[in-house]
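Recap from last week: sequence in, structure out.
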Amino acid sequence: MSDYQHIRVEPISTALGAMIHGVDCKAELPDQVIDEIRSSWLEHLVVFFPEQYLEPAEQLAFARRFGVPVEYPMIQGMEEFPEVVEVVKLPHETHNFGGIWHSDTTYLESPPTGALLLAQELPPVGGDTLFANMYLAYETLSTGLKDMLESLIVVQSSAKAGASKSREDRLSDSSAVAEQVLESEHLAVRTHPETGRKVLFVNYGHSIRFKNMTEAESKPLLDYLFAHQTRPEFTCRFQWTVGSMAMWDNRCTQHNPINDYHGFKRVMHRISIN
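Predicted structure tokens:
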């Protein structure tokens, strides 16, 4: 574990995830602090900042210290801040946005590097988010399966049933833009550009088949990988409080917001970065 001089880092599991204390994300933080936050982010894959009561402009300013904020496909952002998406589940709705295991928008040619999610309004119980470590998912595969996957390309789609179902309520309201089917191809095993570690880059939300294979032919191997990569020992679970903000590395994690708060409202502000 790294030794940090300007922040206090508290891991929440041995698989991934850490709380970062002693940081005011509203402030104009010196480069030394940003460098340590980034190092912790790369080490722990997802980091959490408690008690950050940020306006959209402040959240955007903080996000820009780590990348370029980008607009989310299909869901319209705030009018003044189009890169900030208000992720809402209303009391009468049954589906939560993104409520399956997934990496974000891997159906794009260049999926986002990461994302920041800020809790604005929470249900009295429930609404935790699970995160999973895709380094561990790859590293614990057999040598034979690793060798096989090295040569495979996976087709990723925005129209896969589970993911598109989780967008239904948001696409039916005024914040939605016209839905389109987006597809891209990615190596099933990718190398993280900053850490040099190999990552298993398939996910239940968007991976539909391997290139030059049918969905039926691909399904047995994909189903095995989907089950393997979210084994409990690869995960952490975060319990939100209002003002807590998560920042995850989309290149080496998956996440799953748990839909266990029916009848209550949940509001989050989300920014993707490249």
